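Anyone up for a design puzzle?
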């Protein structure tokens, strides 16, 4: 299922990241390194999230395995690179995907 509005409002996501309630998958870290982010890329990945705007939002979609879990997808431009970010927000922000689009 997909929808055209974020499952979690962006200001809540940003606040959670500022509070340190954020983690990432190994795949997202590998994607950030492939994009040229300096290892460890975690701080810069968080900076990208803090710079997101509502215009960067692309879609929300449910996970393939569990249709009760929503992924918010953003497509920002960061340092002239077009990115694709997929976030799951529950008790924290999980950066699921971080790659070039």
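Challenge accepted. My sequence:
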């Amino acid at each position: 299922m997909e929808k055209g509005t974020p499952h979690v409002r962006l200001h809540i996501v940003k606040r959670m990241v500022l509070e340190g309630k954020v983690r990432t998958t190994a795949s997202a870290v590998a994607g950030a390194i492939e994009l040229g982010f300096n290892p460890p890329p975690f701080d810069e990945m968080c900076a990208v999230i803090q710079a997101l705007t509502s215009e960067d939002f692309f879609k929300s979609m449910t996970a393939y395995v569990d249709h009760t879990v929503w992924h918010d997808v953003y497509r920002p431009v960061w340092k002239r690179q077009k990115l694709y970010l997929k976030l799951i927000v529950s008790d924290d922000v999980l950066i699921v995907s971080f790659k070039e689009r």
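A detail worth pointing out: The first helix runs from residue 10 to 18.
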